[in-house]
Amino acid sequence: MKTLTRTTVVSLLAVVALIIGTSVAFAQETKTLKEALKGKFLIGTAVNTRQASGRDKAGVRVIQKQFNAIVAENCMKSQEIHPKENRYNFTQADEFVAFGEKNHLAITGHTLIWHSQLSPWFCVDENGKNVSPEVLKKRMKDHITTIVKRYKGRIKGWDVVNEAIEDNGAYRKTKFYEILGEEYIPLAFQYAHEADPDAELYYNDYSMAQPGRRAAVVKMVKDLKKRGIRIDAVGMQGHIGMDYPKISEFEESMLAFAKAGVKVMITELDLTILPSPDPKVGAEVSASFEYKKEMNPYSDGLPEEVSKAWTERMNDFFRLFLKHQDIITRVTVWGVADQDSWRNDWPMRGRTDYPLLFDRNHQPKPVVDLIIKEAMQK
User: Fold this and answer.
1) Does the reported pTM lie above 0.85?
2) Which positions fall inside the GH10 domain (predicted)?
């Protein structure tokens, strides 16, 4: 029997260490987003009807591999799910919920009360005049109760009210506000809670780093809680650009909402690389501008330096989310791959944008690996 020399033993140990180190590094590299972020916060995506139905097979594969939460992109909005006062259309919403259950995903319903993509009949009578407060309350209650009860016990939480506040902190002058004033918000949360007492309830809005909107939402949360009305989280829509908002201001809002007694969700996250035709437009879905070629500078792909800057900016935000994982329960990107994003056609149709974590071939962008590595170190 041969005796190993000290030099041989040291060499073998070095080889073993190298193999183990390589294996660990490889395991880290091959982790998915949902694996790396487990125990920190849910990582979600908006799902469209092509994905919920299984027609977009590549998109479905990304969802199954990378995400553990989903939100309805359009199928639960009023004009889709409740087109006529006495008629609901649950076909696509049922398909979406079934998709989430089949793939063991946390499901968020979006959205119960929103002034945009609202069924035309909802707030007016047969002559187009505003209905009375009593009629609107009944319509709101019927709408919320019917939808929430249908999915009781199957949906984790609901975006109850969407985009009710302006940048300066004033209430948005919607039909709901015209007829019911500020009271429509607590009523919506009350009706949703009565329909499913176990479901989480959220308020969702964009440009949440704006001081006026921040202060108004904090006041809203405190008022709801003072009245004993359930609200679990504030959804901060992450429709961000390369130069807005300041990360420090975004962080300030996160901390303010948490201090008010709710959790924080980062919702509708996408990072546009394109110039804005109006920096004041926020994420107002009704905004529309005439197409101009100079507003579509990357129709053939991103230059390397632009892609690198995008990666750094998106990674900076995920660093912020990981820093405050104690107050964040979910981060949701608004779409699976770049071609799915509303950013391509808003607020100017015909543009090509690159705002999501996966490219048009459904491949992860470099930022995905950076997020995973950052998460593994936290």
Assistant:
1) yes
2) 27-374
